[in-house]
Design goal:
It contains 2 helices and 11 strands. The chain has helices spanning about 1-15, 95-110; strands at about 30-40, 40-50, 55-60, 65-70, 75-80, 80-85, 115-120, 120-130, 130-140, 145-150, 155. Strands 6-5-4-3-2-1-11-10-9-8-7 form an 11-stranded antiparallel beta sheet, with helices on one face. It starts with a helix and ends with a strand.
Length: about 160
Amino acid sequence: MKRIVLIIILICVLFAGCSVEAYTPEIKDFSQNASVEAGEFSYTCEISMAENSVSVTATSTNANGMCIAYNGKSANFKYLDMEYEIVSDKIDDTNPAKAVYEAFAVIKEGFPDNASKTADGFRYDGKTALGSFTLLQRDDYSYKSLQFKEANINIEFE
């Protein structure tokens, strides 16, 4: 009987320090370098999200320095001293700024129900006009990748 009581006490002491860790996904503004592959075309860029707007600034190819900012209503294209604005319904769904913006809009709309814990962060799944997508986020809340399966667009964040 004393052995059973001793074993129970040891088990209680052993597990007394253990607790379930709560993981809370967080979607917030960011700015990260990324590599984008769209079909057979690839380029590097900086992707930023701030104040409900996404901007993509090319850092490679002949478009180096071109910035596309999308806010859900229009896209503003800036390159050197040129600037041009296009209303939303005239912008192709594969435009990188629009694609990222719409993915985050879907995630925010279903948040946090569309998040699941992974070994090194979080996974978000959703669907936009481009089709299904998966966003992977690291434990430090930086982004790892955004993939649009049907559109063959893959964004790898640094």
